[in-house]
């Protein structure tokens, strides 16, 4: 490969002539560039790329990400990798790279992290109407093709996403680069160089990171919980690695949740008092030393012990007494029958009566239901969790005035963003903006690791989620609620080891992340920007930015998507918030 470097307007422009590299460019973390997309609208310019230099920004205590896109020509590429050794700022202060360890969640001292994108071929458009109606204007514009989905650490097995990579002719390969900005990092401009190596040749992209003089809080301004099934780790990893998954979730500012009991809370107390998330235990990043706060008593159903008044009193008293001593201030709840039909209402009302009439501390155990707010269930419910398409702002206000919580779960376009592989990368991010706009304190996504399909799929339940895009399959119930199939539903984390499908083993002893989860994290960080701006009295800026990117969501939604769908739009809003916060703090 022949490499020519030309000085242009004080900037270094790299041009590549041979060895299979057609073009190298960068883009923000809110875009998906399909594997065969050699004419992407962002390749000349976008919020993170001016054509010659990567330009990104953020606060202290934030995870900031961008992508480097390498296009191959008709020769293809062998031996492709990227590196970013450091970025250097005021007084020589550096944000430095350190190579990954066997445990991918050992984040201590690893402020720069590198990943390759793994692509999945979406062959058929999702048919589950509770994600989107594929015949409606809210359906994604480009629903099929090879989509970037999984973020594979650079030290994965050869040929499985580990560096260096091979790229077939006339394809793209995305590299994902994350930079964590420590809390004590001086504000200013940090400069470095991303080196893209193809064989023996190198293309250099200048990087400029602007760090603003304020830090994002360690505690989230809203909560996000994702159900997590530990038995999946035993099956696919062949090992109990929940501590690593919890650490990874914490880095993404989400809580991986399931039902707890006194023994499991005591055994894993470090997750709740924050000791598991310290440098001594391999953690560095947002929420350092801060514990998880969501400790459900049950999940996906209440069990039978609350159907009887005496046993309900005993069980709820014991649980609340234990939590008040062990994890004071925790958010807990009794998860009622999931998405209950009217036939289940009498049982729910009875359980509510059993709990609420308890003269002891158990009366404070909240009852949680995945259902839109309604009068029939209202006497029993303390925590409503509505489908995004059924959220009604007026009714939510009424419930909150009565002392109840109203949250949302999953995501139906056009009311909120989806996690489907075919939607824009920013969909989960948009939902967090909508939650801010409507004052929704909790977001719930139904599954993080739906690798082994639940009983709705009677055969072939041990899914190959590294090769097959369909992760929810209930076609036997086509035409009925919950019927059909979906691409990527219920999967935001991926097993770095694969004992079920050994040909897919990446050799990573822990989780691999995803575009979906990274953009959910980005939305939670955006929520902190919005909250800080509101607390500083910046009402106009908050209204302008939410109006720009979350114009019509939830109960305001119309037939078409009324929220932003590109990373450029979201980054413009975030920059406006950051600049306003800095000005207000002077």
Note down, in words, how this protein is organized.
The protein is an alpha/beta fold. It folds into two domains: 213 residues, Immunoglobulins (Immunoglobulin-like, Sandwich); 347 residues, Alpha-Beta Barrel (TIM Barrel). The chain contains eleven helices and 25 strands. The strands form five sheets. A seven-stranded antiparallel sheet has the order 3-5-12-9-10-25-24. Strands 4, 6, 7, 8, 11, 13 and 14 form a seven-stranded mixed sheet that branches. Strands 16-15-21-20-19-18-17 form a seven-stranded parallel sheet. Strand 7 and strand 8 form a beta hairpin. The N and C termini lie far apart (50 Å).
Tell me the layout of helices and strands.
Blueprint: E1 3-8, E2 11-16, E3 21-28, E4 54-60, E5 62-72, E6 77-83, E7 86-88, E8 94-96, E9 112-122, E10 145-153, E11 165-167, E12 172-181, E13 188-198, E14 201-215, E15 223-227, H1 231-236, H2 242-251, E16 255-257, H3 262-267, H4 270-273, H5 309-326, E17 334-335, H6 345-356, E18 367-370, E19 383-387, H7 393-401, E20 405-409, H8 427-438, E21 442-445, E22 470-474, E23 484-487, E24 494-495, E25 511-514, H9 515-535, H10 539-549, H11 567-585
Parallel strand pairs: 4-14, 15-16, 15-21, 17-18, 18-19, 19-20, 20-21
Antiparallel strand pairs: 1-2, 3-5, 5-12, 6-11, 6-13, 7-8, 7-13, 9-10, 9-12, 10-25, 13-14, 22-23, 24-25
